[in-house]
Write a structure and sequence with these properties.
seven-stranded antiparallel β-sheet, alpha+beta, single chain, 7 strands
Length: 111
């Protein structure tokens, strides 16, 4: 797991949107034990909210889309079974990370 990596994570794990399986999510903060896991930003090919990333930026991103601003927590156990598409290349990696609402990950209680 590394910051900027995109993994396919089911909405049932993140609680995002309409229970889509294998939604692209970018890791914005990785945490180790005792609370191992990562904060992720779900991606969507619909709507105008979020940081734009064009199709084919990574193999497996077949549509233009946007990574949302509000992160979701995913445990390391849940991420272990989620396929990686690789790390976002520049300048998209920096743009997505700069636009993430990292205030949300600093709360002691999950949102």
């Amino acid at each position: 797991m590394e910051v900027g990596e995109v993994r396919r994570v089911d909405d049932a794990i993140t609680g995002f949107d309409r229970n889509k399986p294998g939604r692209p999510c970018v890791l914005i903060r990785v945490e180790t034990d005792p609370r191992a896991g990562a904060w992720v930003l779900p991606g969507s090919s619909k709507g105008s909210i979020g940081t734009f990333v064009p199709r084919n930026t990574l193999r497996g991103l077949k549509k233009d889309g946007r990574f949302q601003f509000l992160p979701r927590w995913v445990s390391a156990r849940d991420l272990a079974g989620c396929p990686s598409l690789g790390c976002l290349p520049e300048p998209y990696r920096t743009r997505v990370l700069e636009n993430a609402n990292t205030v949300a990950v600093d709360f002691e209680v999950e949102l």
